[in-house]
Amino acid sequence: MTADTLDLTAFGINAPDLATLSRVAGATLELDAAGTCEHPIRLIGGRDVIEAATGLLLDTQSDIRASMPCGNRRATRCAYCSTLYKYDAYNLVAAGLRGGKQTPETVAGSPRLFVTLTAPSFGPVHLGPDKQGNRRPCNPRRDGSGCGRWHTPGDPLIGTPLDPASYDYTGHVLFNAMAGRLWRATLTEIRRDFARVLGIPRRELTDHLTLTFAKVAEYQARGVVHFHAVVRIDGPTGPGSPAPAAATLEQLETAIRTAVASTRLVVPESEALGAPVLAWGRQLDIRPIGADRLNGGQLSDVVVARYIAKYATKGAEAAGAELPPLACRDCAATGYRVVEGCDPIRCGSCDATGRRYDLDPWDLREHHRILIETCWRLGAVPELAPLRLRQWAHMLGFGGHFATKSRTYSTTFGALRQERADYMARRDALTTALAESEDLIVINHWSFAGHDDGPSRIQPDSDHGEWIEE
C-alpha cells in the first residue's frame, strides 16, 4: 500500500484533519520502508465453490500456493510484521483514549492516568544517562568506593551489578516470573482501595463505576521488567458511560499509590528458598492523560499510545539478551523422556542436558548469563514448577504476556486484523463477489508447506504475541 493509493476509510477516518493525515502518512511510509516479511509462511491449498441450494460443486481449484506474513511482533525478528503490530497496538490503545474502532468517542472525556510501576532493587547497578539523555555519575559514595564514572550510552556496564557476589539474582528472577501475578493482585487492591476512598463497599463498586486498563511490559537495562499502564474510569455500564462525579483523578491516584505500596505476593514456599515476599519498587510515576497536546504537565493521548505501542514490539533484547528458547521441548527441559509403563529414558535431542544449545557461543553479558543459569537452577525446585522457569530462561524468567488489557478497554487485535483483511478482500473483485453472494458457499482449505527463514540465526517463535484480556 502506497501513499497515493491509501484508502483512509480503511483506518476508520472519514474527514481527517491535517494532524491525522500526517500520522497516517507517516505510518504508511514506515510500513513501506520496512519492506516485506522476513520469515513468510508458505501455504498450499485450494478452493471449492458450492451452490447453496443444491450442494452442487460448481468449481474447484487445487494446488494453490500462497504465502502469509509470520506475524511476529518482535522488531528484531521481522521489521515488517513488527511495524504492522506496532500500529495495531497504537490503534488499540488510542481507541481506548479517544474512541473509534467500535469504541465510543465519549471515552475521551473519561478520567485516565498513565502509571509506571517498577521493580525493587536487588542490588546497586551501574547507571547510564538519565531519561533526558544527560550523563550522570554512577553510584558515587562518600567513602570513595562505588563506581563514580560517567557512563556513555551503550556502555555494556550499564544495568550490571556493581558487586555481582552480593546481587540478589534469585529475587530478580522470581520477580520477573511473578510480575504478572503481582500486577493482578495490585489491580484487586486498587479496586478495593478506590472503593474505600469513595466510601462505598467493595462489592458495590461496579454499581457505580468500572476500572479498565491497557498495559505493556518493558525490560529495564538491568534485565527486570516494569509495567506502563493506562488506567481509565468508566461508568457502571462500561466504555462511553459517564463516570460518577465523585470519582476524581486525585482519588484514583490515591488508591493506586496505596495499593502499590501495600500489595505483597508470597512465592510458593519451598525447602530451598522458604517463602520470599515480592513487592513493587519505590519508583512510581502517575501522570494524567490529556487531549492531543501537552497541557499543564498532562501527557498527550497520542504520546501515550505511541509509547505503549513501541514497547509492544520489544522483548529481552531491549536489555541486551536475545536468545531462542533454551529448554528442550522433547523432554520438557528434564533431560529424560517419560513413556507410560517404562523407566525414563535419556533424551537424545539434548543429550540428557535438557537444553537445546550451549550458552558459551552466545555473546552474553555475564550478568545475563547468571540470570539465565539462576532460572535453570530454580526451575529444578518442585514448588516452583508452575513458573516454568527453565522454559522462560531465555526471557530472564519473565513468562507473562507483554501486553494485556481489560476486556472492555477498547477494540481487539482480532477485530483490527479482520478490518484489514476485509479491506484487502474488497480490492479483489472475484473474492468480493463470492463473499457477498447468498447463492454460493465458498470453502477454502490450506495446509502448512514450510517456512522461509531469513538470515537471522534466531528463528521466529511464538512468544507473547497477542494482547490478553484480563
Written description of the protein model:
The structure is a single chain. The protein is of the alpha+beta class and 470 residues long. Among the domains are: 105-321, no CATH class; 324-361, no CATH class. 27% of the residues lie in helices and 17% in strands. It is built from eight helices and 13 strands. The chain has helices at residues 18-33, 79-98, 169-198, 249-262, 301-311, 366-378, 413-426, 429-436; strands spanning 41-51, 57-68, 112-117, 210-219, 225-234, 265-266, 277-278, 284-288, 336-337, 345-346, 403-405, 440-451, 468-469. It has a six-stranded mixed beta sheet with strand order 8-3-5-4-11-13, sandwiched between helices. A three-stranded antiparallel beta sheet has the order 2-1-12, with no helix packed on it. Strands 6-7 form a two-stranded antiparallel ribbon. The longest helix is centred in the middle third of the chain and has 30 residues, at 169-198. The radius of gyration is 25 Å and the shape is globular. Mean pLDDT is 84; it is low at 1-5 and 454-464.
Termini separation (Å)? 34 Å
- The global form is globular
By DSSP, the count of extended strands is 13
Q: Helicity range of the residues?
A: 25-40%
Widest sheet, order of strands: 8-3-5-4-11-13
β-strand percent reads 15-25%
Please state the average pLDDT score. 84
**Nearest-angstrom radius of gyration?**
25 Å
Largest sheet: 6 strands, mixed
Order of helices and strands: HEEHEHEEHEEEHEEHEHHEE
Structural class: alpha+beta
* Low-pLDDT residue spans: 1-5, 454-464
Total helical elements: 8
